[in-house]
Specification:
The protein is an alpha/beta fold. Helices cover about 20% and strands about 35% of the residues.
Length: about 180
Amino acid sequence: SNFNDLDPLRIEPDVALRVVRTVGELGAPDAVILPGTKNTIEDLAALRSRGLAEAIVALAGRGTEIVGLCGGFQMLGATLADPHNIESAAGRTAGLGLLDVETVMEPDKVLCRVAARHVPSGEALRGYEIHHGRTAGAGLAPVIVAEDGRSLGVARDDGRVWGTYLHGLFDADGFRRW
């Protein structure tokens, strides 16, 4: 779901955007964006069953930029837990392990408009959050910070793997070009 987060990238003259559903279609991209999902744990299982999870981890190991948006952000972490069966009865599962964070699905859904800043570029962002999960970890650089100071996303030290709960961030022209 939330493929509309990627639509603004289509207007960039130097971006070739494609949806990938098999390892054979993946190739050697400059970046991989894992969009939002309505069922993070089950969609992560689908990525694994198709060999895409392993291929994405391998690309990250070669320096490809990996971006996770909302559910995609949750997938990048070490673990995902759904103790209340919000999205899945799977309970607890390993994430892709690309970010040292853990996500726990909570009954209360976060739904709000947000003004934020992309820390590395300083670019202003506007968008929204819509998720059940709470993601936490230590030692990661905040990459997107809301005006109220909340971290909406984190990155590895090298900045090549990062994730955020902010939908609509690619709508910001300056950030998108950055």
